[in-house]
Amino acid sequence: MSKQELDFDNDIFVFETVMRVRHIELDMAQYLTLESLTALLCEARQRFFYSKGIKEIDADYHGLIIDELQLIIVSRIRAREELLFEVGVELLYNNGGTIVIKITRMHTGETVAKARQHFVNYDFRLNKSIALDKIMKEALYPHLYRI
User: Fold this and answer.
1) Which of 67, 70, 66 lies closest to 1 in space, CA to CA?
2) 3-state secondary structure the chain
3) In this structure, are residues 77 and 37 in contact, taking their beta carbons and an 8 Å threshold?
4) Does the pLDDT value for residue 147 go beyond 60?
5) Residue 35: which of 24, 48, 45, 46 has the closest Cα?
6) What is this structure's pTM?
7) pLDDT, tens only, 39-74
């Protein structure tokens, strides 16, 4: 499989959160597992959505779901490291978009991983993707709606 670079502009990131790696997230070699890193990415994304007022599933049974994940691990991560997750929206269109996340070590600023997550707005009753409403678009991509 070819290694594809993930390059993001630093001005795209609009949200930050810090998480510490726990011992239960490590493999036998004492490094963060891929599964645990993916779970941390999900947590960072959910914290971002919460900060924007976006619920996992709203009263109409609509919610954003991830249908594609691209992840590049630059450096191995050990227990008790504090990681800074920077989150932004790279692209938005009618029924979804792309969230980008950059993970760095808090104390050194070294980039350890980058991720791109494609999402769609999903109707769980109809079992299909639907268009994003104006409120959600404005929450995720506010600079389009500034006058």
Assistant:
1) 70
2) CCCCCCCCCHHHEEEEEEEECCHHHECCCCEECHHHHHHHHHHHHHHHHHHCCCCCCCCCCEEEEEEEEEEEECCCCECCCEEEEEEEEEEEECCEEEEEEEEEECCCCCEEEEEEEEEEEEECCCCEECCCCHHHHHHHCHHHCCC
3) yes
4) no
5) 24
6) 0.90
7) 999 999 999 999 999 998 989 999 999 999 999 999
Average pLDDT over residues 118-145: 89
Say if CB 112 and CB 77 are below 8 A apart.
yes
Residues contacting residue 22 through CB under 8 Å, at least 6 positions apart: 79
Q: For the beta carbon of residue 97, count every other beta carbon within 10 angstroms.
A: 21
Encode pLDDT of 94-116 as tens digits: 999 999 999 999 999 999 999 99
